[in-house]
């Protein structure tokens, strides 16, 4: 994946970075994904910093929780978790807008 990271779900929302990584199927019984994802910031105070997530994403659950396993730049030594919520999903194209709320501790 290589998607825009924005402040809000609207197409006109300010772009603050990229969400980059990969996912693969991790379950034979449901849509459960293994996500390895970096939120890489390209503007403002957090420019050139990133947050790294690695975990299981049960894609059709209302809220999914995944661990933050690290970061770089201002997020060096980051630990915490994210909660993902799907705001919009087009089943025909597979396109989705997902909101990530990040709870983070870092030095």
Automatic annotation (TrEMBL):
<comment type="function">
    <text>Dirigent proteins impart stereoselectivity on the phenoxy radical-coupling reaction, yielding optically active lignans from two molecules of coniferyl alcohol in the biosynthesis of lignans, flavonolignans, and alkaloids and thus plays a central role in plant secondary metabolism.</text>
</comment>
<dbReference type="InterPro" id="IPR004265">
    <property type="entry name" value="Dirigent"/>
</dbReference>
<dbReference type="Pfam" id="PF03018">
    <property type="entry name" value="Dirigent"/>
</dbReference>
<comment type="subunit">
    <text>Homodimer.</text>
</comment>
<dbReference type="InterPro" id="IPR044859">
    <property type="entry name" value="Allene_oxi_cyc_Dirigent"/>
</dbReference>
<comment type="similarity">
    <text>Belongs to the plant dirigent protein family.</text>
</comment>
<dbReference type="GO" id="GO:0009699">
    <property type="term" value="P:phenylpropanoid biosynthetic process"/>
</dbReference>
<protein>
    <recommendedName>
        <fullName>Dirigent protein</fullName>
    </recommendedName>
</protein>
<dbReference type="GO" id="GO:0048046">
    <property type="term" value="C:apoplast"/>
</dbReference>
<keyword id="KW-0052">Apoplast</keyword>
<keyword id="KW-0964">Secreted</keyword>
């Amino acid at each position: 994946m290589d998607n825009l990271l924005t402040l809000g779900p609207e197409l006109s929302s300010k772009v603050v970075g990229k969400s980059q990584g990969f996912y693969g199927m991790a379950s034979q019984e449901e849509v459960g994904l293994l996500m390895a994802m970096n939120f890489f910031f390209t503007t403002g105070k957090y420019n050139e910093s990133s947050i790294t997530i690695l975990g299981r994403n049960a894609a059709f659950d209302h809220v999914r929780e995944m661990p933050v396993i690290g970061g770089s730049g201002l997020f060096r030594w980051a630990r915490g978790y994210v909660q993902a919520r799907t705001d919009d999903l087009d089943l025909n194209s597979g396109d989705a807008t997902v909101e990530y709320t990040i709870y983070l501790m870092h030095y």
